Amino acid sequence: MGRIWITGDKHGTLVPLFGLAEKIMLKNTDILLIAGDAGYVWDKHYCDTVATLQQIFPGTIAFVDGNHENHQLLNSFAVSQWQGGRVHQIGERVYHLLRGELYTIYGMVFFTFGGARSVDKDRREAGKSWWQEEEPTEKEIEYGRKQMDCHVNEIDYVITHECPLFARAFLSRKKEIAPDYCLPRCLEQWYHIVSNGKRFQKWYFGHMHTDQLITPKLRGVHHDILPLGEEAPILWR
After folding, report:
1. Could you give the number of structural domains in the chain?
2. Calpha distance 128→169 (Å, rounded)
3. pTM greater than the 0.70 cutoff
4. Scanning 64, 88, 108, 187, which has its CA 20 to 30 A from the CA of 82?
5. Residue at 233 is within a domain
6. Torsion of CA 42, 45, 97, 215, to 10 degrees
7. CA–CA separation, 97 and 83 (whole Å)
8. Is 196 a member of any domain?
9. Cβ pair 10, 39 in contact under 8 A
10. What's the half-sphere exposure (Cβ side, CA atoms, 13 Å) at 28?
11. Of 148, 78, 77, 69, residue with least CA distance to 112
12. pLDDT band at 66, cuts 50/70/90?
């Protein structure tokens, strides 16, 4: 059985992964999970980026989508199955984990939910550097809520891009919440629901560019590459 690692927003850079395999003796059974804004599927040259990614990481890479992704391109991939949940398969060993899905990996159940709202979208160009699909729809949120409610006692880990609303009070990076932006509030509700789950261990989020433990069971990830469930990173800035 391989090991599972967790990290945050990489925004298309490969630099943190160079030399990683030798440093921690990665195996082809290892899995790297990215909590959104992976950014490796950004334009027509994504095939070259993904090929390099698979060369430097010998195992599997799976990511939830963030807000800074080419959602139109991601959604052009056929939907398939991986570890019991729906995915977009980007490369031989690279997967986009879809919103509200459950995956069973090495006996542990993961609930995933990508997406967020860009505060800088007024400085981006629609269809080129910003896509409206970044923000989950009411239908996607309702699907996620039903999955959470039905499987709360089966879930070991949660991986999202956006963070639960209450976490923002503990973060130095402030992002305003518009009245019509409901996702952080929904995630706060889900956090309280899953916290009472029989198997729940930890929730990881990206987006806020922080490596910070908010509660014993809520962790922001960015530069750190952590062994799942542990607090000692093997990479930090």
Report:
1. 1
2. 33
3. yes
4. 187
5. no
6. -50
7. 10
8. yes
9. yes
10. 4
11. 148
12. very high
